[in-house]
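Session log. Operator J.P. requested a structure for one protein chain; no other inputs attached. Running the standard single-chain path with token output.
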Amino acid sequence: MTKELRIGLLGYGYWGPNYARVLSELAEVELAGICEAAPERLRRAAQRYPHVALCRTVEELLQLPRLDAVVISTSAATHFPLAQAVLASGRHVLVEKPLALRIEDCERLIELAARQQKILMVAHTFVYNAGIQRMKHEMRREEFGRIYYLHATRTNLGPIRMDVNAIWDLAPHDISIFNYLLDEQPQWVSAVGTCVLENPREDVGFLTLGYRNGVIGNIHVSWADPNKVREVVAVGSQRRVVFNDLNDLERVRVYEKGVSVGDRTAESYGEFKLLVRDGDIISPHIDPSEPLKNQCMEFLESIQQQRRPLTDGEFGAQVVRVLLAADASLRAGGQRQEIR
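Structure written below.
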């Protein structure tokens, strides 16, 4: 029989209640404690989970008996010190994205997790979305052809965050999706943004990522667009695959349409002939599942099986490298920046 894991939750703000709900629903988990500094939030947690220990500080949470792991759902600037404290105490940790705000801190956490022989996982939740996983399946099929490019749109009216700009808030989702779909990291990034809402941080951003073999990915993020969009598109030589997170009935669409370059012909005076393919539009069946629950199950199974999770510390660090290069590009007026 699998051992029940006692897991603590750090943060009960915007996303923390969702973690509390999912963890309390998992048969192999005991929600051991909730840590929250804000009294009103802690009061709401007490009403919802009367039998769960409540704490005001991370030190209190880490003193709970038989605590196996901690989920961190707090503001971005606190991720590094909190994850460092949890790992140093000998517990596994699942931390919300981004892993940290500096690459040096990401590397410290990766090294600490390895030294402590504990799981360090980053919550890039869209990687655990069944629609994104089906999208990758479709892109790997021979019928998709050669990948040309990717583009993603993630817009809405807020919610506006005070700790990071819209790029750091929203683009990690699509950077992680692109990296997952392509099984690689980008080599360079170019970014521009603006503060249309007179915020001290950019509330609109456009990023272009360069991958191997000339493949590019474009990302548009905004807190200031009244039209809510959550879409990722992959264009190949024979097919186009679209993921629409707001369409519950047809989360993924496969367009059997594409264009590729054929051989040179004498009739065209040595020019390439374009081969256009036009077919059906397919909406593949996708079993319904909650991405957050899938992500938490990956965390549990990684602990139980003592294996690296799909979005481990290095995966999270690669996303931070892209974001830091995007920051440099923003300061340079959109100049392309190499990702190291």
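Operator note: The mean pLDDT is 94.
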